[in-house]
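Handout, tutorial session.
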Amino acid sequence: MKTLLLALCFALSLPTWGSAQTTSVQDVLQSQRALIEQSSRRTIGPAIDAIVASGLPQMQTVLEVWQNKDMWQRRADGLFFAATKNADGTYTLQSFDDGADAGNAASADLDQLKPNSGVRAMIATALVQFQLSDPNPAKRVDALNSIARDPEAALLIPLRASIASETDADILVRKERLERLMTMAYDSDESRRVAAITEMSGDLGVDFRATLNPLLATTRVISRTKPDANIAQEVIAGSDALTRSSAYALLVDADIAPAEITADARDAALRANIEGGRIAGFPVAQLSTEAARDRAYDALVASDLAPPRITQADIDASLSSFRFFDVYTASSQAVTTAAKAAIASTETRVAISQAADLGLDALSLASIYFLAAIGLAITFGVMGVINMAHGEFIMMGAYTGYVVQIFVPNHTASILIAVPLAFAVTFAAGVALERLVVRWLYHRPLETLLATFGVSIALQQLAKNIFGTQARPLTSPAWLDGAWVINDMVSISYIRIAIFILALLFLALFLFIMKRTRLGLETRAVTQNPRMAASMGINPDRVNMLTFGLGSGIAGIAGVAIGLFAKVTSEMGSDYIVQSFMTVVVGGVGNIWGTLAGAAMIGSFQKSVEFLNPSNTLAAQTYMIIFIIIFIQFRPRGIIALKGRAAGD
């Protein structure tokens, strides 16, 4: 009651802060002198309440000085001061009322107040009420953080009082939200609590749900009649929600029914009554069966040497005499009704947000797979070459970006340089691979597979020899840091957005090359009928070389993009080669739109499996492979089948 009265006094005094005061700081401190001197967590509460309730603006300084162990008491008269140590070992005293110099004193004439951690925590809570209106925005933010970590009903009134004078827009939003949450939890006015809950209904914030959940918490109550309380539901003994054994156990725990005699309790009673090798006239040697022990125990019961066993009829009688209710912790039915409606609305929005977040994750993963597979769609899909070194071209592109960043520390400039340079490096590597290896193995898929697999191993080892086995950083520009936060549950990193945009750009670039350029025309001609194309003056060897180089160059650019969020190692290409081949095969060999559809399907399926089984990411890979095996049984040519010569191969 005393604390409530002090809090009321504090609230009433808030409008007068800064006006002339009839009570000095020293008067308030002296009125609480005994408690301050003792400074115990168990007893200091009234003293802190009195300091806060005084309404004196200087009390914030008093509490801060006290909390920092810089408050001293003069032994001669018991007055309290702030003090600073001088070079000669004496202390200069400052008055708490006006900050004026109150003279010097030797350390022997002063006692330093050293509050323990418990008292400092209580002072910190009291300081929050002052800091909410502190001119320093940082202190106001600290006060809000402190309230959010450890909310108390006593802080609701000063929090409300500070809202009207708040000038910072961001802090004002935080204050208003925190006030709504604390109103739900602590306000004594039922209508205000219901209004706050209704106003925030459907909010996705974790703090909102954390505030509502305690309001809907229930305790199980045993009563002969319906209790006068806010009842959530009556639970019937013997139902799925409360089995008969669990219901009777509740009666036993409440000491309103005798406990059942277990086998261990029976045996303990038998051991306690052994006399001369017998128990109630039964030889101990004959009590080797459960039935014999039960008869011996019943004999003890008949002699009043043990409590009687509880029969099924006794349990039925006890259960029929009592009813079981789940009672809300919150006593107001209007509050719990509003809370249930708000939670239901929130859960609906949570489900929608989870679906949206899952969709964004799937889209992001699909764009990564598309970037990794678009080059393979050219070399494998268009040319029919199984290039197992495609992943190593991705790795080469990532390492190219790393090397550029060594010489160009500006991350934005380095990425802009790395993208065309990675294309050039991997284009040249692709042309070299086609001229030296692949051109001799056309229409020999097994030999091509083995040869390019050997090249991939050689490139991995070369990367290890040059860069080592440790992962290398490929740092993204500062403007790609962070994430686009839609709400508390839906967000996507800016790097993923950039990769998605890059995938769209490459889709447009590939379509332009294939549909609007001479190389694209010649590539399509060679793909459809190489002999006819050769008779029309097209050089199939040159087209194959440039096409293979184009696919390899795009893989290099994909490596730069993937390296911005994934580890750059010599093995990074092997992490994407399988998914790249699956993307091309599922989408439809030789069709860029099919590659896009395949990437979307595989990305969506993998993220869906990870959502259903988040603790086992390996399961997603396994299920994805099984899904693809089943899928190609029904669509062997993929989602979008290629027409023409390749379709008949």
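The second record follows below. Compare its token runs with those of the first.
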Amino acid sequence: MSKVCSASEAVSMIRDGSNVASVGVIGWITPDSILKAIRERYDADGSPGNLSFYFPCGTGDSMGIRGMDWVAAPGLMKRIVSGSYVNPVNPQTGRRPELMRLIRENQIEAYSWPIGASMHWLREVARNSPGYMTKIGLGTYVDPRQQGGKLTDRSEEDLIRLVEFDGEEYLYYPTRKLDVGIIRATSADEFGNLSFEGEALMSSSLAIALAVKACGGKVIAQVGSVTGRRTRAVQEVKIPGVLVDHIVVDSEQMMVTDTHFDSAYLGGQSLDFSRLAPLPMGPDKVVARRAAREVPRKTVSIFGFGASSDAPLTMWEDGLFEGDKINDYWMTTEHGTFGGLVMSGWQFSANLHPEALLDGLSQFDFINGGNCKFAALAFAQFDSHGNVNVSRFGTFNPGAGGFIDIAHNARDLIFTGTFTTGGLVTDISSQGLSIANEGRVQKFVNNAEQITYPVMKNVRERGQTAKIITERAVFQVEPDGLVLTEIAQGVDVRKDVLEQMEFRPKRIAEELKTMESDLFKA
């Protein structure tokens, strides 16, 4: 009997109070039709309600591909556990995601886990283990001695515990039953064998299917088309049909935000970056260009979401990839794509013209094994104790994403971003940079609102190296504090740097360098 059915038929089997896991990486590989069908059923019937959702990472863009925002409704959603959250302003409505409002107004239970823990926890569910144990995240906001990953006051249950094993401390994530898994692929046969020939990522689809079936639950797969059984080579089929209960066909499913399909994200083509537009000249471009100077050759380099992911684009723009020189730069992201060019914005996560792909869980095995020696990450706050924050600040709750795993396991770290934010305006020329209007919000603060990673502690105790790169200054993170090492021409150290910090650097380098002039050329 065929497993193919409509989205409404597939979600009709979801019961009140179920635990539901769903794949998705921003706009990539998001089973939007199924998530939408859950919301439509709830709006019509008031069921299923009181659901707990597990999203290994932020799913959907909350606009054209709404993803997790479809199920963001009081009564429908009781709890959400996610590795990251999506918080853009919709250009058509001017509003931020409904899910963010529910979190701000304490209407649901909300937890933020590192994506690595979210992925590896699924493996422990799949093998019926009691839980996932790791040192990654100790001393951060997921540590129960801090917030324990909780985003709202309603989040009373401790989903993460501090335990001791062989005399050492670990974070422990107990497993629990998953009733429903929602995954996505490119095509299926009528038995449910799934292939990913049109997807740039695999993410957690297989891990979710294995975990849900180990719990005796049901797996719903969204695909773009159905093909005949035994019509594909076995190497193309990544998930066997025995793990799939229902197949929902959406022939219009988007590859990613603003892109129905683009084969350049699948590899197997000659390099062609002619479609790319240079970044507009501004402080973000200066930061990206300076960060690009740090990227090593023939070393696996991993780029996080945000300002750091602009660096590869400036490397292309400034001619660092001429000829076949791009082959000397081994770039990846936390979502498993290797080679080619790391993209930024809504296309972040997949690479343009990639050479290899790991599923999401295996990629975090790769990261946690210390294979990404160099990491470029963004920062929202850096405090006087040497802590960096990207996970919660002001009214924003983006979570850590892959940040904690990446930062913990890299050898050399750079953190990128503008010096201040909120209205920052600069004048940039070949002579350097001047501040036309200072940002309202300082990012170098006495105490970070949340600790995403204790940088200075790990520089001191584990021998990591770290730099902070901004449009006007560069700092080295030393074991005892920040050292100001570079300054942009045209910038006043006292007025534009020291007075824009809530704390003072430990010292200013004896030979304070001037940032290279070509960073500021249009």
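Points raised in discussion: Residues 222 and 432 are 52 Å apart (CA to CA).
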